[in-house]
Every structure is written in structure tokens, then in C-alpha cells.
Amino acid sequence: MRRLGMAFLVLGLTVGGVTRSTAQTGGSVVIYGGKLLTITHGEISKGSILIVNGKIKEIGEKVDAPPGAEVILAEGMVVMPGIVDTHSHIGVYSWPVVDAKSEGYEMTDPVQAGVRAMDSVNLEDPAIQRALAGGVTTIQILPGSGNVIGGEAVTVKLRPGSTMDGMIFAGAPRGLKMALGENPKRVYGGRNKLPSTRMGIIYVMRNAFQQAKDYRAKWDAWEKKAPSERGAPPERDLKLETLSDVLAGKVRVHVHCYREDEMEALFRLADEFGFKIASLQHGLEAYKIADEIARRNVGVATFAHWWGYKWEAWDGIPHNAAILADHGVRVAIHSDSPDLIQRLYEEAAIAMRYGLERDDALKAITLNPAWMLGLDDRIGSLDVGKDADIAIFSKDPFDIYTRVEKTLVDGKVVYDRSKKPSPVATGGGR
Interior CA angle at 330 toward 328 and 333, to 5°? Predict the structure, then answer.
């Protein structure tokens, strides 16, 4: 792909409806002549995108570019929204994955709702550049799954060279990581502590949410009093504050799980306390209760074909994503790996091999994960008004020979294969 500099922009020259000029307007970019996979309104065989100040201003077969717009030629290439990963530990488990860089667990108590992944993120993690080379633009960084309630996630845009504040996706809803199954059982059961069973895990969750409910009631009672009658406020508890925000609908809940029975137990708990589950993460047995998941409008972020790597994953099948989508569930393909995140488009293609329709496969790495994060109004499709987070491929993203040529975040090129070939993978982890 050739990126035209200002020396090539000639006043008054129009190609395919794109006007180029040496005048400076600032913040304008045109991606010209590529095949556009919009996700929401079909494909445009040879189209262009006008980006102004980081937003998609215009999209179609022809666009009217302001004078001085930077032009990216995409003829013969495929342009689609940047890939979104709902389940990443980049930055909290940095490459190479060694104990000194393991910052994703606070495994000193099964309920750690007060901790935040953002306070552990290593912005120099080499996996960030590798994710960009795979067309990934937005990720949710989660705490690990060793705790029943692991802490708050952080949603970031991959802006290399930024501070943490610069990486955070402004306006993204808060998210809380919770976990069921073998991981918390192993961690705390191995210490002869609660929980060591699935019923113990649900008890820990129920007890924590009951405490949060009581905590909120104390604060509500104090706030309802006249200022002259209030006295000292209740003691602040950061764990219970986060959980009370979950009950108030202010925090989205993402739950690590595998088995059908534990998902059903989770649903009973959510009904008891009246909170919404945004997504089931992994959910390898979700296909068994697809109708119920669809009825509840819960998303499932899963693997394309990982199964059997531990006994609770033994009933995982590669048809999981297809079955869920056929039942109306919003399904995403996630990574949970600094290695796999580089090839999420290939993972979606594998899910197609096992029955996932092409449109659903595209949504599984773009619009659906954006919806799970509460960001589908900002990212996940090529639509006017959305953030200009874009991946440009040499071929169709599901072609085994395709490569990401450019990745843009907010209209800025953050990866360019012609200038910096893909970093060599150094390994992966789960």
C-alpha cells in the first residue's frame, strides 16, 4: 500500500470523487478505493472513507474530501472496522510471561471488587504492537480468573506511546470480572479455604452482593436525611462500593465460566439481586442453553476451537459460536492470549468452518464485542459518526494468505506494514 504525502497532493485533482489539495485543514484523512466491509450495511466493492478529527465523516463509492486531506490508497485491498477483543490480559501479564510480570491477580481474598486492572497495566508490553499488527484496535484488559470477583477491567484503545490516561477508552462503561469453576476452586480449595466447590463460589458471590445491598441501604438512609441530621457518613468500603454500582446498573459484569450448570446458577444469582450480565467469557457449554442466553440478551465471548485443555472444557465444541448465533445470541471470538490476539480474524474464519455464517463471523470480531463492552455506538462498524478505528487487509480477512497492511486508531495510522513488518511472535499463554 502507498501512502501519499503532501508533495503528491495537487490542487484541484479529483480521482473517484476525492479532491486533493495542498491547503491545510488538519485532521482529515481519506482511505481511497478499497473494498469496504461495513458490517452494518453490506459491502462496497470500491469505496472510500472520509475521516475528520478521528471520526468517520463520510463513507461511500465517492466522498468529498476537504483540501489538504491525507490520502491512503487502498485499491485492491479490504477495509473493515478495527478488531475488538473483549478478553485480554495484555499489560497485566506482559510478554515474556514470568512471575515478575504477573500483575493480573490479587489472590489474597476471593472477593477483590475494589482493585482495578488499570493500575497494573505495563504500557511497554510487546504484545501491544503485535495486537496492532493483527488489526486489533480496542481491548478489554481483565484481571485474572483466580478470584471469584477479580476486580474492575479497563477498556483501552491501542495507542502506542500513550500514557495510561491516553490509552483508556474515554466514556467506556466500567466492567467487572467475575469467575466460576475450576480456577477459584483450585486457588482457594488448595489452601483449604472457601470456596473449594461450585456451591461455595455462588455462596461467596451471594454473600458479597448481600453485603453490597446492605451497604447501599446505609448510604441511601444517610443521604435521605436532612443535612443537619446526618452526622458522620457510613464508612466507605471500596469493594462494596463497586458491587453496589453493579446492583445500580453502573458496571457491566463479565463472567469467566465453562459449564452449563454454573451458568444457570449465575443466572439465578443475577435474578435474585437484580443485576444484568453483559457477557459470558469462554462459555464453552453455552450452546447447551442457547435459548436461555438469548432470552436474557447476554453476550457470549468464546474461542473458535479451544477445548479439552482442562476437564471443565471437555464438552466444548467448535460449533459453539455457530449454534449460539443461530439461536440469536450475540457471539464474539476472543483471545485470552497475547499470541492468539494477533490472528482473531483467522479464529473467526475457523468458526465459519464449523457453521458460523460469514456476516456473523465478521460481527464476532467487531460489532458484537463492541456491544458487550457497551461501545457499539462508537466502534465495531464503518458508519458515519463512529470512531475511525480501522483495519486494512491485503485480501479478504478470512483468506488464509491475508495480512494486515495498516491499522488506524481514531484516524491515525498506528501500524504500517510497509514501514514496520509484523513483530516475530515470542510465545503465548492462557
Answer: 130
Output the nine-digit C-alpha cell for 339: 499470541
Rounded to an integer, what distance in angstroms lies between the CA atom of residue 281 and that of residue 298?
Answer: 11
179-200 burial, b if ≥16 CB within 10 A, otherwise e? bbbbbbbebbeeeeebbbebeb
- Dihedral over Cα of 398, 388, 365, 18: its sign: negative
C-alpha radius of gyration, the chain, whole number = 23
- Predicted structure pTM score: 0.92
Q: Which three cell numbers stand for residue 206?
A: 451471594
**Ranges assigned E (strand) in 334-403:** 390-393
Q: Name the β-bridge partners of 338.
A: none
Task: Yes or no: say if 324 and 286 are a contact pair by the CB < 8 Å rule.
Answer: yes
Give the list of residues 6+ apart from residue 347 with CB closer than 8 angstroms, or none: 303, 304, 305, 333, 335, 340, 365
Per the listing, cell 470477583 goes with: 149
User: What is the C-alpha to C-alpha distance for residues 318 and 303, in angstroms, rounded to an integer?
Assistant: 8
- Per-10-residue mean pLDDT of the chain, 430 residues long, equals 35 39 59 98 98 97 92 98 98 88 93 98 95 98 98 97 95 98 97 98 98 98 95 97 98 98 98 98 98 98 95 97 98 97 98 98 99 98 98 98 98 94 46
Residue of 106, 142, 221, 160 whose CA lies nearest to 408: 160
pLDDT of residue 423: 57
